[in-house]
Here is the input.
Amino acid sequence: MTNTIITGGRVRTLDPENPGAEALVLSGGRILAVGDRDAMLDAAGPHARRVDAEGGVVMPGLIDTHPHVLHFGMLAGGLVDLTDAVDHADIVARIRAKAANTPAGEWIVCTPVGEPHYFIRRSERDLRERRLPDRWTLDSATDAHPVLIQAWAPRMPNVVAFNTAGLKAVGLTAFIPDRVCDVEIDKNESGELTGILRGPVTNYYTYDPFWGQILTKLPRPSLENATAGVLAEMRRYSAQGVTSVYEGHAMEPEHLALYRQLRADGALSLRVMATLDAESVIFYPFDPLAHDEFAERLLQLAGQATDLDDELLRVEGLTLSPGGPCFSGYFATYEPYLGPFGRSTRGVRFLSLEKEETFVRFCAANGIRANLCLGAFREHDEFLDIAERIAREHDFRDKRWILQHAMTISPAQARRYADLGFQVTTSVGFAWGKGAMYGERMGEHVWRDLEPLQRLSAAGLDLAGGSDWGPKNPWEQIELAQTHRFAGSDHRNDGPDQKLSRLDALRMWTTGAATVLGRPEIGSLAPGNHADVLIVDRDPQTCPVEDLRNTRVLRTYLGGRTVYDSSELAAPAEETEQVRS
Here is the structure.
């Protein structure tokens, strides 16, 4: 077994027992030793591979506890990528290239234009024409294939574009009214369909009956495209320094089967920890299970809910997601607010309180770690009342259940979760991407309880960070934990209940995340831990906060194996003797 020694840079271990060092040694996929350069040379031995960090910073790999690597990868797999398209001619050229290699009659589906998934910093409005192309423009790319430019959740209202063959494939003609349910069907002055539809036209978190019927006529991702999309998404995460992820939301057995196949093929470039959803609610059509069917599903999933034998792919727990996002008007509140189409709403409960109680009781009685996706005050209160009552019968505090989301939460609710032994994973990107929308639809008073990271920490809750809908840059998420800035404005919601220190923000993506996931062997560069290591171009503990988002990863190791290399560092050299001179 050949050891590897990394020198030539500052080592940030995130290990409180030994926070800084000059070098570290990797051996057999683990951290062998961390410390002074000369001592590490001795520990590495004379035949070790040498890696020169060339002035960079060495640190543990990041842990994203709300990434949707699989979901977003599957959704994008096989699509024409328009995220960085600049104008209609660019879009036509990309679709035409895809059409040249696609059998006539098959769908050509495209990503939206802009920055997924909020589309705030860049969207179709930033094309040179300031709009999506109409059907006649898309026909110039191909008239032999149905074409769709998709809209991705959570942004709502949203916009999609079909070509002529696409309109025909989903059964839309000029006889249709200008508006059906909440979908607006665009027409020109002659009454012809332009191919543009607006409204609840997203690929998920939409339950509009009319748009839902169109969704059922669109092609499902093939296994080949889904696999390619997930592999591409994993590569993107590796390039940003993420080495472990927690897929704790919207996971079905078939999703887990895809991860298992990738594991069997030796294709996993991330450590994956997952749960299974007790009842998945985010994709159309969603028809709630009857209560007895729900109880039977819990029994079926229980046998798959714990599998901790594999270091790269683990399953632990079940997830319940009773509600949905504010963008779509599903956020469950006490006071009414404006939904995406200007109507007053108090949100929607997808799963009944009876199911919620059955889920909590089942997990508590069977020793299963539960993951609860809850974001609104009413959701928290309803759940806590159930959980506190059941905890008196079945004490589950030692199972360290996970509260996921926690977009808004009061001080009293935070303390109640802490008393129940909960831990928290959330995305401060919720405030970045939706803070302005919360202020407009609910009122600015909601900002005092929006992503209150310091409040959660002060209540004794361990915190972990996730990217979810964006920004999909973990370094920017670390910055946002300190600044709490809103996208598209200069507003900063950085009150005393929100703002974290730099070190605590980094811990959300390293040691804090490891604690929440119950995996102390990742998240820090301590001897014996997995050799999940980054070399980055700046010191994330001391660089100006506004520079964090520009952090470049030079190399990523997973268990000592290089899974990303920017090619900016020299290749590892053999023999350590020359290093001493």
